[in-house]
Amino acid sequence: MSKIDIEKIYPWVKVNLNAEQDNSIETKTVLVKGEEINADLIERKLIGNLILLYVYDNGTLFEILQEKDMPEKYSENDLFEKACDNLLRDVEFTMHETSYGGYGLVAGGDHEAASLCIPEIWHEINKHFEGNLLISVPAKDMVLFIEENDEEKLLKMKELALEIYKDGERPLTNQIYLYDKEHRKMSVTSDKI
Fold first, then answer.
1. Is residue 123 within 8 Å of 117, Cβ to Cβ?
2. Residue 163 contacts by C-beta under 8 Å, 6 or more apart in sequence?
3. Mean pLDDT score, 121-148
4. Does residue 18 or residue 58 have the better pLDDT?
5. Helix, strand, coil share (%) of the chain residues, nearest 5
6. DSSP assignment of 61-119, as one string?
């Protein structure tokens, strides 16, 4: 990879294929375009079975960064902050109503799942609701959510999410997350789609 413009690095959410088995991210096996890869990737544990990688937008496609691509004088924490800043600067996240009565998050088709690494996005979204949120990310480009205590909408969201997870082109995770409004943090629930 040629010289990397730090302004074009973004967070990229992937599922850690080993997390289901041993809750470890040491082996760094991830699914990229339908294929398992093992590489010396720059990564961060995100939540549950999700990890955060970093990609470089070369103008044509997104290239996953490896340790050898780490910008000089940057720690992984520095890279995380810069990638999230770039994402917030360059991508518009919008909330919309869905056919099942819940909500979805749209961000151009490539960055929806990356919203999980930016608490400010969820804090802003949660201002529209009285309680906590339940969030499903069945695919990289699909983030669905509802208010926590709506059992009817939860069943409908899970139904749609499961269909996307099983049949979608970019499946991600069957986990459901809770955004706690008071504490402004995300956690994994025991529920699955």
1. no
2. none
3. 96
4. 58
5. 30, 35, 35
6. SEEE-BGGGPPTT--HHHHHHHHHHHHHHH---EEEE-TTSSEEEESTTTSTGGGGG-H
If we measure between CA atoms, which residue out of 49, 14, 13 comes closest to residue 30? 14
- Average pLDDT along the chain: 90
| pLDDT score, position 3 | 79
Residue 185, SS3 per DSSP = strand
Token digits of residue 128: 């529209």
Token pair for 77: 């924490």
pTM across the whole model: 0.87
For residues 179-191, average pLDDT: 95
Rg of the chain over all Cα atoms, to the nearest angstrom: 16
Q: How many CB atoms lie within 10 A of CB 75?
A: 9
CB 147, CB 159: distance < 8 Å: no
